[in-house]
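It is worth pausing here to work through a concrete case rather than discussing structure prediction in the abstract. The textbook approach is simple: state the sequence, then state the predicted structure, then interpret. We follow exactly that order.
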Amino acid sequence: MKNRDRIRQYDTSLHVHFGSTGERRAVTALSLNDSLQVRLDGKRLLWSRSAEGANHECLLEEFGSDALAGNAFEAMQHALDRFSRRRVIIGRVKGVVKWGLLPAFGLILALGLNMYAARMTGITPQATPGTMAQLNQQPAFNPATAQPGFAPSQQPQNLQLGNIPGLPPAADPAIVKQAINAGTKAGKYAVQLSQGSKGTVYVFSDPSCPHCRDFEPELEKLAADYTIQLFPVSVIGGPDSSTSVAQMLCAKPEERANYWKKIVKGDRLDAPTCPEGEAAVAANDQIFRKLNFLGTPTVVNANGEQTPLTLPNTSRAISQWLDQTKAQ
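Step two, the predicted structure:
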């Protein structure tokens, strides 16, 4: 059988697809501009990075055995090591060119021009302080001011998989908006945590995700001004999250908010599960993957737009972003 596992680097992105050994077989594009780390957790492969103080640990792939997961982990480590070595080599080459070859070429060019001018005028060139001062006054190249509107390279605000050849198109905001509106109106997939006057914020969160638990205090601050519709998923916690979320979704709608606060703290619910709740959490997991969300928590505005990857998960930053996008 043809091996469809792929780990390839395109510019500063690492495109990962465990098409043969993975259970999810999702295609993921990881930015290499930040400190990208990969961790093996049993049969799961997790990735994380640091971007402006916001740490995210997300599920990369699940495997059917520990051996397959171990092989995938080694392959990812090899790819990251290869990128690091290449970056070091490129950095050294650039340093040699910048501090060695370019100044030497500039000096040779200046001397050549002086000699040519001397021959044309019939005088002998002299090395005067004015000549050296003129060379030293040449402005250094600054990429940030080389072109109007040019800014140094940064992590993309939103990762658009649809722009990368060979990858399936990412869901556009209109599709995301349609999905979350349908899920909210159905009444069995989402949990309304608050009722606010500034608009609605949609959050996909896993009760077993450490970053989701850290985000809870910020979510409570947002709840003072916004209506929070939370879609619980089990993409990180697996069966543990799936069971507790199913129990919560089996409860009455007015009881779910209190149940969410319990399970996100790690408490177990003394409540029965039901087929409807299990089907609801499975549907939430499926739509999470279909919309190509990168990890939990994922925050979406009323227009179906996700928060930028570089935006800190704080109530203040998210509130400012909501004002800027005018998704009220």
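Step three, interpretation. The beta strands are 5-10, 13-18, 27-31, 37-41, 44-51, 54-62, 191-192, 200-205, 227-232, 298-300. Residues 40 and 73 are 6 Å apart (CA to CA).
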